[in-house]
Amino acid sequence: MALSRRDYREALKSIDVIYSVPDTGAMFRTLCEKLRKFIGIYSAIFVPANPETGVFLFSGYEIFNNQEGAMLAYLAYYAQQDPFVSCGWFRDHPNEAARNTDLMPKLIKTEFACDFLMPMASVFYVIASTLGIQGDTVGMLGIHRQKREGNFSRRDKEIINILLPHIARAIHIRGLLRMTDPRGGDNGVIMTDGGGRTLFMNDEAKKALRGVPLKAVPNPGLGAAPVFFKNRGLTFRVRTVPLGNVQRNDGRAKIKIVLLEPCPPRHRIDPRLDGLDLTGREKEVSAMVIQGYSNREIADRLFISEMTVKDHLKNIFGKLEIRRRSELAARAMGVRAHDAKNESAPEP
Fold first, then answer.
1. pLDDT at 250 over 70
2. Cα dihedral: 88, 64, 62, 166 (round 10)
3. I want to staple 193 with a disulfide (CB 3.0 to 4.6 A). Which of 228, 253, 321, 343 is the partner?
4. Are residues 220 and 163 in the same domain?
């Protein structure tokens, strides 16, 4: 269905709200007020997701024109009866809105509608989607109407689909900014201008690129799938954060931050290593081995000699009764090591 000029104009105004209001809760409420006048909504909810696991959170949710008790009842009991959950829509279709009546045509006869939607939430028609960008799930958005107000139209659905990736991006940017501190951590941080010129690059980014030009790093854009950069056996998750315009001597330039996160990330490795009988230093060495770093690279990052790294590996291998680096990754991450039978000697 083709949208009218007015529809596109109002959608652009909504996108401006999404990016211009810095607080997620305030942005959500302001956007809902606009949508109430634009397409007609009764209420709405936003449920955030853990940026590391994608699991929806019981805290930090936002509601618009609805009861707190209804939201708590949904999260505690009725969520599993929601057709968006039971049909797998939230899991499989990020940034793609659907109507609950399309997923469950006989919704009116279900316990979810009769016991929750109409009596507790005071609504019946729902259009909803998960919010995802660059491989991360940032939350879930649900927009509602009462039964007497009628269902959402194809036009309404198309307008919501235009807004979804921008809502995901705006929320995602706020979360990623916590990862951009160039003074510490494992992430490579690169700042570029609109012409692709590098304004800043921390040591971790230089080590990740290893002389490869920045233009070889893929751009995740607004896509919902994760994007990776591989270089000499190491893999990095790529994320980008736009920072707007800054004044340069030769005019205004758009600034962008590129994040290179080693894979698998430390927040996934460290809990696995906690269950092994290793010292703090041995856990650091093990994490870097799992990420694919060589002994020399581990030594450079930990400011120790390569011989010391080998001594740590010898102790680690002895404690875990393993012989190779691939076995260390398999033990810690719960994956199957590649065929080690054809390898005759242990790796130092």
1. no
2. 70
3. 253
4. no
**Residue appearing with tokens 């012409």:** 195
What is the share, in percent, of the chain residues with pLDDT greater than 70? Answer: 89
Angle (CA) 310-316-317 rounded to 5° is 90
Buried b (16+ CB within 10 A) or exposed e, 262-296: bbbbbeebeebbeeeebeeebbbbbbbbbbbbbbe
Say which CATH number the domain at 100 has.
3.30.450.40
Same domain, 173 and 68: yes
Q: Which domain holds residue 284?
A: 266-333
Q: Identify any residues that bridge with 237 across adjacent strands, giving them in sequence order.
A: 228, 261
Q: State whether 186 and 257 are in the same domain.
A: yes
pLDDT tens digits along 271-325: 889 888 899 999 999 999 998 888 998 998 888 999 999 999 999 999 999 988 8
How many C-beta atoms surround the C-beta of residue 52 within 10 A?
11
Tell me how far apart the alpha carbons of residues 283 and 316 are, in angstroms, rounded to a whole number.
9
Inter-residue contact 289 to 262 (CB < 8 Å): no
Read off the tokens for 290. Answer: 């799992």
For the cut 70, the answer to whether the pLDDT of residue 178 exceeds it is no
* DSSP collapsed to 3 states, the chain: CCCCHHHHHHHHHHHHHHHHCCCHHHHHHHHHHHHHHHCCCCEEEEEEECCCCCCECCCCCEEECCCHHHHHHHHHCHHHHCHHHHCCHHHHCCCCCEEHHHHCCCHHHCHHHHHHHCCCCCCCEEEEEEEEECCEEEEEEEEEECHHHCCCCHHHHHHHHHHHHHHHHHHHHHHHHHHCCCCCCCCEEEEECCCCCEEEECHHHHHHHCCCCHHHCCCCCCCCCCEEEEECCEEEEEEEEEEEEEEECCEEEEEEEEEEEECCCHHHHHHHHHCCCCCHHHHHHHHHHHHCCCHHHHHHHHCCCHHHHHHHHHHHHHHHCCCCHHHHHHHHHCCCCCCCCCCCCCCC
What amino acid occupies position 312? H
CA–CA separation, 93 and 84 (whole Å): 10
